[in-house]
Amino acid sequence: xxxxxxxxxxxxxxxxxxxxxxxxxxxxxxxxxxxxxxxxxxxxxxxxxxxxxxxxxxxxxxxxxxxxxxxxxxxxx
Length: 77
Known about the structure:
Layout lengths: L1 E4 L4 H12 L6 E4 L7 H6 L7 E3 L9 H13 L1
Parallel strand pairs: 1-2
Antiparallel strand pairs: 1-3
Helix pairs in contact: 1-3
Organism: Spartinivicinus marinus
Pfam families: GST_N_2
InterPro entries: Glutathione_S-Trfase_N, Thioredoxin-like_sf
Protein backbone atom coordinates (compact mmCIF):
# COMPACT_ATOMS: atom_id res chain seq x y z
CA UNK A 1 0.00 0.00 0.00
CA UNK A 2 1.09 3.56 -0.62
CA UNK A 3 -0.29 6.73 0.92
CA UNK A 4 -0.05 9.76 -1.35
CA UNK A 5 -0.36 12.93 0.72
CA UNK A 6 0.49 16.60 0.97
CA UNK A 7 2.16 18.10 4.03
CA UNK A 8 -0.38 20.94 3.87
CA UNK A 9 -3.41 18.63 4.18
CA UNK A 10 -4.89 18.29 7.68
CA UNK A 11 -6.82 15.23 6.46
CA UNK A 12 -3.59 13.55 5.37
CA UNK A 13 -2.06 14.41 8.74
CA UNK A 14 -4.91 12.64 10.52
CA UNK A 15 -4.40 9.53 8.40
CA UNK A 16 -0.65 9.57 9.04
CA UNK A 17 -1.23 9.90 12.80
CA UNK A 18 -3.47 6.82 12.80
CA UNK A 19 -0.90 4.87 10.79
CA UNK A 20 1.78 5.72 13.36
CA UNK A 21 -0.45 5.07 16.39
CA UNK A 22 -1.29 1.62 15.06
CA UNK A 23 2.36 0.97 14.13
CA UNK A 24 1.47 -0.05 10.58
CA UNK A 25 4.70 -0.56 8.67
CA UNK A 26 3.46 -1.86 5.31
CA UNK A 27 2.27 1.54 4.03
CA UNK A 28 4.77 3.56 2.02
CA UNK A 29 4.22 7.30 2.48
CA UNK A 30 4.88 9.55 -0.52
CA UNK A 31 4.53 13.32 -0.57
CA UNK A 32 2.47 14.31 -3.59
CA UNK A 33 1.58 17.88 -4.50
CA UNK A 34 -1.99 17.91 -5.87
CA UNK A 35 -1.46 21.20 -7.72
CA UNK A 36 1.47 19.81 -9.72
CA UNK A 37 -0.64 17.20 -11.55
CA UNK A 38 1.77 14.44 -10.58
CA UNK A 39 1.23 11.32 -12.70
CA UNK A 40 1.19 8.86 -9.77
CA UNK A 41 -1.54 10.82 -7.99
CA UNK A 42 -3.64 11.37 -11.11
CA UNK A 43 -3.41 7.68 -12.00
CA UNK A 44 -4.65 6.66 -8.55
CA UNK A 45 -7.15 9.50 -8.20
CA UNK A 46 -8.18 11.43 -11.33
CA UNK A 47 -9.51 14.24 -9.11
CA UNK A 48 -5.98 14.76 -7.76
CA UNK A 49 -7.13 14.91 -4.14
CA UNK A 50 -5.06 13.87 -1.14
CA UNK A 51 -4.85 11.82 0.94
CA UNK A 52 -5.09 8.87 -1.40
CA UNK A 53 -4.37 5.32 -0.26
CA UNK A 54 -3.26 3.16 -3.18
CA UNK A 55 -3.96 -0.53 -2.57
CA UNK A 56 -2.31 -3.10 -4.81
CA UNK A 57 -5.36 -5.24 -5.54
CA UNK A 58 -8.19 -2.74 -4.99
CA UNK A 59 -9.26 0.71 -6.14
CA UNK A 60 -7.55 3.57 -4.31
CA UNK A 61 -9.31 5.10 -1.31
CA UNK A 62 -9.58 8.87 -1.33
CA UNK A 63 -11.68 9.81 1.68
CA UNK A 64 -9.84 10.39 4.95
CA UNK A 65 -12.34 8.34 6.98
CA UNK A 66 -11.93 5.42 4.61
CA UNK A 67 -8.17 5.73 4.85
CA UNK A 68 -8.28 5.62 8.65
CA UNK A 69 -10.67 2.66 8.57
CA UNK A 70 -8.55 0.78 6.04
CA UNK A 71 -5.39 1.43 8.03
CA UNK A 72 -7.09 0.16 11.19
CA UNK A 73 -8.52 -2.87 9.41
CA UNK A 74 -5.19 -3.87 7.89
CA UNK A 75 -3.61 -3.66 11.34
CA UNK A 76 -6.09 -6.02 13.02
CA UNK A 77 -6.27 -8.63 10.25
